[in-house]
Fold these 4 entries.
Entry 1:
Amino acid sequence: MDIFPEDTVSSATSSPASSLYSPSPHGYGSWVQELSHDQQGVRLIGLLYQCAAEVAAGAFDRANLCLEQINQLASLDAPHTLQRLAAVFADALSRKLISLLPGVSRALQYSTAASCSGEAHLVHAARRHLFDTVPFMKLAYLTTNHAILEAMEGERFVHVVDLSGPASNAVQWIALFHAFRARRGGPPHLRVTAVHDGGKECLASMAAVLAKEAEAFDIPFQFDAVEARVDDLVLLLDTPDALRQVLRVRSGEALAISVVSQLHRLLAADDVAGAGRTRQQHVPGSSCLTPVQIMARSSPRSFGELLERELNTRLQLSPDAASSVVSSLSPQSPAAQQQRTPAAAGAAKLGRFLQAVRGLSPKIMVVAEPEANHNAAAFMERFEEALNYYGSLFDCLERASAAHHHRQEAERARVERLVLGEEVRGVVAREGAERKERHERLAQWGRRMEAAGMERVGMSYGGMMEARKLLHSMGWAGSYEVVHDPRGEAFFFCWHRRPLYSVSAWRPAACRHSGGRLGSS
């Protein structure tokens, strides 16, 4: 992939910000031809920052001017990663701008919802391609299973609650079957409860696949389904013991909870509740799993690294726009007050949910989350973090496509538009209860978990070695790596040394088992 080289970045710092980044008021066709490819890259990044500042300041005319220029340089179908990334962010910024006009915004939501429903069948395929081509979900499943296996040593009856929703995958539990079957003393009686709002067909497929695999491994197995979102479970918290009843948590079973990339949704504000669609059922059905794709090794430089190392520290906003942003987001301003209120409400909702989970007395709760700060109150802070974070993910996908000689370009384009693009819109364009993509870094998750009465369970060295073995076996070592945090309490999954996901393990603070770490083998 042709990523903009180092001299592109250095040229940005040697030119005045006003001439490089301020939109030209005329000559929209001619100026593009006058710029070299490298200069277009620098110009795009500058325009994105400038546009975000103007949107934050509510400067419609100046933001529109930036968007017009971005659209001449960027496209979802462009050959270069930065151009496609810029197109996705331009879409999110335009939606953010429109949201400042509530009447227009609500009117447009109907047509947007209609087009999205027409593409719903493509989203699953896009998620599957993302799973196949980048290792983060596989690593999350593997390390989660390793932690569960160690925590359940000696247990004869095990109940695993899967709260991962759209990130849930039968592959994870098939791998756990393998691990339990190989342990000393044989496998336990295993029950898996999946919380998922994908519909009866999706849950039936998972049930059928797991039942078939469990029978092949001669593992006593039961599958329960709760057709709901994690958000919906919060509605149960006002009724004593309702969460325990819905998840069918029983005495005599050792409980493990797995949640991948879902807890951040509970940080959204309380003012829009879930649909209350929680239903419990046993489901039959059938499905087949496609094989895992192998992604070839990547070249040494990534867009995410380039953007973070150079541009993130050197790009300067125009003084007028910067002052407008500071003013609109000062602690005393109405905008800042409005932004803090949903965050506080969401934190309360999450806290109540975690306390309810603690009340279930799990032996272990394993949490995998994007390692990013997309929950900041300040819009510009969220925008900057998102540009760096999703720049890295776009780069991962581009390197995978290049490794397959661009045979997967159509699939990559769907992932960028339907999965990552939707997440970018969630971070950049939405506010309040509608902003579900509230990713936070592990340090903040640690504070939230401990405030809810949970304590850390160290992730073992053996789990890290298993994860590294997976990277090597799939040809992903080098660009990707698994890092054990200095205290041995979590894993970070990195792309060119930038952490993009974290996995950590927790248990109720009152539960004092022998030792603080799950194992060393």
Note: The chain is about 55% helix and 10% strand.
Entry 2:
Amino acid sequence: MKMSEHHAVTFEDAAAKEPKSRKRGLSVMRDEDHIQIPEKLHKSTVLSLIKPSYLLGLGSKNLRLENRNRLCYLLHKLVRQRNWVNASGVLSMLLKGTTKEKCPTVNRLKYLVSMELLDHLEKSPEDKFVVHLEFVIFCLTRGDVKEAHQAAMSLMQEREFRGHPMSNMVTALTFCERWHSSIPTEMKWKDSDQIYSPMHCDFSGAKLSHHGGNSGSFDTVCSHEDETHLRNDSDTSVMIGKRVFMEIGNDLSKEGPIEDHVYLAAENIQPLSSVENEVSSLNDVGPVNFASLIDALDGLDSWLLPIKLPKSYEDYDNFLKKHGKLLNDDYKNAMKYLRLALYSTPPVLSALLPFIQLLLVGGHVDEALKELDRFCHNSQTDIPFRLRASLLECFDRNNHGMLTNCFEDILKKDPTCPDSLAKLMHMHQNGYYSTESLVEMIALHLDATYADSNTWREFALCFLKLSQSEEDRMSVCLDGNEGVKKQQFSVCYKKIPNILTEGNSGKNWMLRCRWWLNRHFSKKKLASDIAAGDIQMLTCKAACASHMYGQEFNYVVQAYTNLDKEKDRDLCLFLKMHMQNSIRLYSDHLRKT
């Protein structure tokens, strides 16, 4: 211990006697293993890990300095070219990278370019106009309708207002909010009375549960309060929710077609003057006999009709008096600018639903159907078709041909939609839709999603009906080596319908059968279906598989064996019936196995 103290004193004395001109040695740090690490090296290592840009300043070649010089050169070049968009981006990067810059030349450059950009923005009315639009949307999302209205009135005085698609939409939403605030409380829908939002999913009505084969569950859902258990959440009141505002706000900065992906032929776009004349003529029409429409409108869902209809005949007179006051100037202005937004270039399809809603509030049912017909002809989305189908179900429900066309168009544009398929299945059960068409629509749906047992059951029944409508073909004797079973047996298959084998449809069915071997009927899927314990789903899928691949197909054999163990006689008979009437559409899998 004395020796250690002596060495320590000697080291301190030597350090004190060092000349001041001598460079100070590196301070050291000791880790747990008592290894000496220079403190500067330790800090450099930490900086390189937590701040990778630190490495740019190390080495003989200072990359950070080179990058700054390149940014300055690029900024000079862009300013000379008057390329303000790219110059603003380079300036932003340079400002971030030179926050502690002490060079007067670089700081002067940043200052001068910033002043140039500010001067350019002040001379750009388009940018100011977009900011004005965003301010109106901000007021609406905040619920400040009065401030939004004042801002919208000021916006309408701008030179760019008339030809800007979103300006008409934002102005229309402002008037819609003012109009909705004037609706009496007893005529407004409550949150518990509203169905799910059509902008998110289906426009054709509330989601329907279709368990079993009865047609009653597919009827149009009425809008009475005592039936609100069929409805989910929604945003009624002409869909003026904050979500819609945010979508429009994001579209203000986009170039090209706005959010809707609706492309109308150039000859179908009406001039603004003719659109304004149509709106004026519509508003000048005498009051519609709304009382005669109440019974028909009563079948509409709340997302299509944003006012609550009277519950009893005693309330009709009071309702009609209040309804007449709703068709005020705000209502007319909202109609005007919604239509201008719809027929602008490019069109804003977000205006379609609130425009149809307001037409229905005014009793203009024919005009609403006419507008939807125009958009259905050239629409790339399913929204107009869903709206049209909902109106036809309410006002022309016996027009089965037009309804089936609407539901088919919806499925073609959105094959995952279960409600439209359920409506087609319901119409097929009532004899208004052919088996050949339904089997195509169900297959299209199964191409896009995994359906429930009821859909698979209806699919199997379609195959059964098609097989019974064709003549029996020659019996074929299969050798056991070709099938799943080892013994020899004789199988009699029905004649394959022509719609499943001829032309492009036949090619599509062959490709589908090959694809579904892995998608719906693989060994892994079979094990999953058995483990799920849904024997109805297993039975219905096996029935379909027997028609597509034959009764000796592995999925069919294993499903039948499983049903036999479950001792479910009804399901066994159901599957056996389909196996005996199988058409075996596809047989290439037998040669592969």
Note: The radius of gyration is 36 Å.
Entry 3:
Amino acid sequence: MLVELSLKQKFLTLCGITAAAMAASLAIGQRLIPQSILTGIVFYLISGDRPATVYASIVSLPRDLRTAVIFLKLNLSLYRYERAGATVYQIFERVVARHPNKTAFLMDDGRLTFAQVKQLAERTAAHFYAKGFRKGDTIALLMETRLEYPCIWLGLSKVGIVTALINSNLRKETLRHSITVANSKAIIVSTELAGAIAEINEQDGIKGLPVHLFRTDGADASSSDPLPDAEDLRLSVDSGSSSSNVDLSGIPNDISPKDKLVYIYTSGTTGMPKAAVITNLRYTFMALGCYYMLSFRDDDIIYNSLPLYHSAGGMIGVGSVLLCGVTAALRKKFSASNFWTDCIRYKCTVAQYIGEICRFVLMTPPKPTDTQHSVRLMFGNGLRPQIWPQFVSRFNVAQIGEFYGSTEGNSNLLNIDNTMGAVGFVPNFAKAIYPVTLIRCDEETGEIIRGQNGFCIKCKPGEPGVFVGKINPKKALNSFVGYADKAASEKKVLHDVFRKGDIYFNSGDILVQDLLGNYYFKDRTGDTFRWRGENVATSEVEGVITTIVGLKDCAVYGVDIPETEGKAGMAAIVDPEGKVDMEQLAAGIRASLPAYARPLFIRVLSEVPMTTTFKLKKRDLQVDGYDLAKIKDPIYFLQSNGTYRLFTAEDHETIKSGKARL
């Protein structure tokens, strides 16, 4: 106790010196950091009875002070915009006024300046208002990445029309569902995707589709027109005004920051896509959040090869352009082999990634362009810790801004200090204004564990738990608007978490926090399974196998075994060339994984069942299981000596009968 007290006394002196120095040097404009923040930091630093807490406080002090300053700037900007009632379109107008002739978007050999983006948006707004569309209406946008993509939904937002950003890869029933679940009154479709709309429009029994169809350009003269009744939007907009000035006087100025802006859909890996509601305020927070926290520069050029209907590409990437004034280089479809070539061509200084993009790029053969680029920062989510050091070393990327979050959620994290493997952090002193935490759960089922008092139990450092965020509708940081489907929204909300009446957003993800406040992704609830009395985190097994097989796509999931408790592990590896060496794989698995975590089955896939956000469709693979009647791919079966051999029909029957000794 005497030693601990002495340490605290010394540390308190250090705190006083540090706080004084920081207060003297860290000024924002002409005002110093508020005394309340410094006081909170000092109390945070000297709190706790254990030396470990004091150590963690010292180590994280520079990071946490820097974060406090940036966070204050972000919140001041959000407060000013919200107080002024500024919508995304109105903030964009301020950006245009600052530099109208600056390039906003680049793609192939084309470009749009900020003034040109505004002009196209205004013409779109005027045309649809003249057509009778009004605030609160929804229009579905089905289009591959083009320069005009953000201009269309931006123009609709000026009227108050909500744009449903439809995944351009959807077809048939899933496409019809995405259009109708948002109550769309019209569809804007590009020519190359017109056939997808025609297909569902002609199906018998398909009801509820909008009757208003707009095509973004004329029909291809070399083929029959699948939508002969669709209006040519480009022709209509261009003919609506030949001058740069568009008459918008009739459009009411009654849009608020809390009004809906767009619908962005979940990836649909476990069912039909859900339309997440994105308000003007939510969009502003996400765009400004990355801009401030990752210290973007006004002259940055962001390489954005992500789909624009997705939150990363369309909200964070495009939002940085519209609301912050940076430039973005777009690509119609991601290409691993052209990633750095494009970055060099467009002189990009920042690049985005999602899912497995970094691994795809790392799999390309080494070439001079690997380090001839000017990219200093890459940001996104999904960079596996197993390849993180190899990626930054080979491509000479100074900073990785890995973030965590969902399209609809209020629980977002961002790694701003290059902590390898971390998805972000929350300083202890910031938990009052950004109340996110981990709560105990059953890792296999995802069911929340409550204490004897009926409330949830917070996890300790190092203890896995479900990541949750307190919902406060009055704050952009903590609000949760949910989905177009209210029933789906309610499923994501937890009630009476730490006290009666409080509500929290349930992310459905299992994370771990260390003593310094860094968070690490562990697994999705429901993905973790239990085998031989132990919990198996699929993401960890996937990381090991991916490394062994040369960065090939891999998905790990649990499958039921008759008459056996828990679920056995099964791995699906994409290997169309048949290059995976099963002996080498087995040896690597034995060396890297405990017996309970080793997959009982390995399926070698000839094609990639992947979503457009670069995630393997694990649910489909799990439904197939190891049923040889459904699967034509070879399946390998784990032997008692740790090797794998081909799984046979006889093996299948033995397992089905419950006689297998596993």
Note: Residues 51-83 form the longest helix (33 residues).
Entry 4:
Amino acid sequence: MSSFYKTLEDQNKDVPNDVRQRRYCKYITNFASHFGKEKCMVVGSTTEGTRLRSNINEGDFDYLIISGVSIPVDALEHREDLPCFVHIRGDKFQHSFSHNLVDGKYLPSRILKEVDRDAFKIMRGLFHVLTIPRVTKGRQTLHAEFNRDAKPGMCTEHYAGFEVVGDDLTQSMKSRLTDLLSMLGETTQNDIFSSTIVQIFVGLIASSVGDPECSQPKRRKQDTESTDDTPNEKVCRVKFNYKSSKDFIAAFPIDGKLKCLDEWKRRILNSDKIFWPSSEAVDKICQSEVYVVAKPAIVDPCTGIDFCFGFNQAEMILASCLSSDQRLCVLLLKALQKGYLKKFSSILTTFHWKTAFYHKCEQIDSGLFDRHSTILNALEKVLSYMIDCLQRKYLKHYFIESNLIAHITETEVNEIQGKIKEIIADPDAALKVYFDMNKECESSKQEEEISMKEMEELKKCKFDTANRIPKVVSMMSDLQKEASDGSKLTQAIVDTLYMVIEEETDIPLKRSDTPVKPVDFIVEENSSGICDQLAVPFTVFPTPIQPPSYEQAIFSSGGNNSQEEQKY
């Protein structure tokens, strides 16, 4: 078992790209601070220190894109049956949203879902630039990125070693793909966007969409849930070496104190039977910022107006309070969720298991998590607690009295209970499934299904460059409109550039006290409407400076995979 522990902790180690992501979010937030209160930050398992990176799946980065518009706590209308879901009474506070209120009173959730300009005057342009689907060439293979709707935001999935294959392709389609890959194999990085390659790939996509011989294989459960309106949508099977993802989640910050956090604080501090978290952590959590994100309720959703609480900062504080052995127990739960319980991973997510773990952490003496003796006893207590929750069909949100599994069916309860009991009976064998699964997949390519809609998005992206330039220009134009005068935009650029140089290089810099002069962004378009030139007057430094670009870092997968390229 100790070898399992070591492997999990190796997969959990920070990589340089983790730090880079946080730095780049800091740069972006610094830039945005010149115009308002918009922010972005890395949240989730990467920041909490519980991320698992295997050679087949590097996990994901979660980016919280925070609006400069705050929602007063008095404008929140809780669902009585599921209080962690709320509707926002737009008629109860002053705002500048141009959208009509639903039923004359509720703020539409699509403001967040679409990263609307009314709420994200600065971040909106950057979001659209960073989420353009694209195909690029690695050292040996193709890389593809697709956008997929996630319930609280958008997920961009990155596939390395991307191939469209399988019996669902006709011979003509396979031939065209072979031609494409052959050409890319002889193509340098500089000419990857040549017109010939673009035409072939666009032709491949177009023929795939219209090809009557393309089969319709069975979809994964999570795919069918997100495409209920197109149950017969055609798909292609693809193979890949490994994948990673980036989740972009737009959020409104809450202005005011939530009653549920006061109640949680009293429960923790007034009990002499609670071992964890510390009183200091409790105070920090109660002072931390809370958000609402656009997410439909798990029962009887009102998709157009449903929002859900996000206690992201509180969860990061909780994670920072874990000992190394407690964190190892979390990793064991994640390994089980991704391995032995993989069939049910969309029903009981890592968030559900983390919640159950936190509830039991309160009651378990930290000594029971000792990896050298009793950690499996602590793991069993968490697993048994989840069985109890399933039997009652009630798993309480850690911070608010709200049921996280109200949507689960009796059949699902029975199946999952049975699997968890098998884990308790033989945890070694159950954990081995995760490690064996990774070893098996390392020796061969993985396979998934991609919808024709997602493939069509690649066609629209025109291989990255042609579509990215006008979006960047649009973003800069929005910034100019937002700035009351040119000096504000210039100051934002200069201040952020100084920050980048100070942190990314060893070059000593001294900031000038002389006010910077405004710059003009000159956009010249050709007859096709595509930008030919973006001229920005700028000071030339005496020493060449080439810190990594924002975009380069954001799009870097960042992991410990060595199959093809070092991504960290």
Note: The mean pLDDT is 79.
